[in-house]
Amino acid sequence: MGSAVRSAIDEALSRGEVGLQVAAYHRGEPVLDVSAGAMSVGGRKVDSDTIFWVASAGKVSTATALHVQVERGLIDYDQTIASIWPEFGVRGKDSFTVRDALTHRVGLAELPGDATPEFLGDWEWMADRLARSAPSDDPARRNAYHARTWGYVVGEIARRADPAGRSFEDLVRDEVHAPLGVSGVWHRLPAGVEERVAIMRGDILSGEPATFTVRADHEINTPEYRDRIDPSGAWVTAREAARLWAAYAQGGALDGTRLLAADRIETFLDRRACTFEAGSIAGPRAVIGAGGLMVGGPVPAHREVLGFGGGRVLWHPGAGGALGFADLDAELAVMICHNKFFDERHHAQHPFAPLVRAVYADVAG
Q1: Residues contacting residue 83 through CB under 8 Å, at least 6 positions apart
Q2: Is the distance from CB of 171 to CB of 162 less than 8 angstroms?
Q3: Is residue 298 pLDDT above 70, yes or no?
Q4: Which of 19, 189, 284, 313 has a beta carbon 3.0–4.6 Å from 226's, enabling a disulfide?
Q5: What pTM was computed for the model?
Q6: 306-315 mean pLDDT
Q7: Strand pairing category for 313-317 and 323-327
Q8: Which stretches within 47-202 are classed as H helix?
Q9: What's the pLDDT score for residue 114?
């Protein structure tokens, strides 16, 4: 670990962070895998195998599954969702496209009203309810970030297009994780890893539009929650999630395996085709790109605000502060996991921006 990263980690811990993992790939090679702090207040030390829930920072996994289906000619971004998933094309949703789903533009930001906890991990139930739901008028007048529903819509599109008819979990594992050698990214925790999972605490949201504080006994920290599928989020180790981002940083290929075409990844740097911001939940720094990941936009200077070294960056935040990104120019991929949530929307710069800059200094400087 370089001195800049060490100092930035020490600074984060001094500000109240409990546990951290930081991993990076540079030019396709793993160059950083560090951990610090504890899995819970007063608990065991974090190591490279500790698992963190990173919320929406895990959306990169689900998005990649859909992009792989496009790469294979099974899906076109501009075709209607209903042409792949006929049940979706009701109650005014018949014209929404695959791109609309990727970019949070289908008016289904809210969970179905009867989505009680026992149904949240039931894929068939959630897909059916969302297909039969009427959209809000958000797409016409504003944006509402689809925090928890996005993964079911995007994932069901990818699943419906699969000639083998695999489940979402099998599809992601077989077509994204396995080819890249990624073994520590899950949308549902497997059995036998519970002792490796960090306890999450702190503010996911504070103030408008709601306050959402996670305590040690919160549902997120229970075995029941970890046993539910979460296609809009993921449980990861930083080392393995950074490998997923590394495929983007290397133009779609890693260790001789090409997952996506380089020119396709270039299109993901374009902003989605609307001028509305991502909405209050996602915050002002969340500018959604055409491929469903975040890009630059109203952020005046990525280096000052988010720590990124350049403008050609694909990234995605997670509720509570987790952060993953791929810098296409620097060929740098980074994942930061932690377990002391903060609402980064209220900070002039992302609290992990100094740590991001430190990674650039030590690794890509």
Answers
A1: none
A2: yes
A3: no
A4: 189
A5: 0.96
A6: 89
A7: antiparallel
A8: 59-71, 98-102, 117-120, 123-132, 138-141, 150-160, 168-172, 178-180
A9: 78
Question: Domain segments of the chain: what residues?
Answer: 3-60+184-364, 68-173
Surface-to-core class of residue 305, CB atoms within 10 Å of its CB (0-12 exposed, 13-18 middle, 19+ buried): middle
At 312, give phi and psi (nearest 5°).
Answer: -90, 70
Continuous segment of H or E residues that includes residue 357:
helix 353-359
Smallest Cα–Cα separation from 332: which of 362, 305, 354? 362
Cβ atoms of residues 293 and 269 within 8 Å? no
Q: Enumerate residues 6+ apart whose C-beta is below 8 A from 240.
A: 182, 183, 184, 185
CB distance 165 to 98 below 8 Å: no
Cβ–Cβ under 8 Å, residues 359 and 20: no
Q: Which two three-digit tokens encode residue 273?
A: 């085709």
Average pLDDT along the chain: 92
pLDDT at 144 over 90: no
Query: Distances from the Cα of 319 to the Cαs of 31, 147, 211, 259, 350, in angstroms?
Result: 26, 9, 12, 27, 12
The pairing of strands 313-317 and 257-258 is: unpaired
Q: How far is CA 192 from CA 189, 226, 340, 343, in A?
A: 9, 12, 24, 31
Domain 3-60+184-364 has CATH 3.30.70.360: no
59 contacts 233 by C-beta, under 8 angstroms: yes
Using pLDDT thresholds of 50, 70 and 90, give the confidence band for residue 66. very high
CB 237 within 8 A of CB 21: yes
Residues 172-195 have pLDDT tens digits of 999 999 999 999 999 999 999 999
Nearest alpha-carbon partner for 233 in 107, 173, 317: 317
What number is the average pLDDT over the span 236-247? Answer: 98
pLDDT (average), residues 211-230 = 91
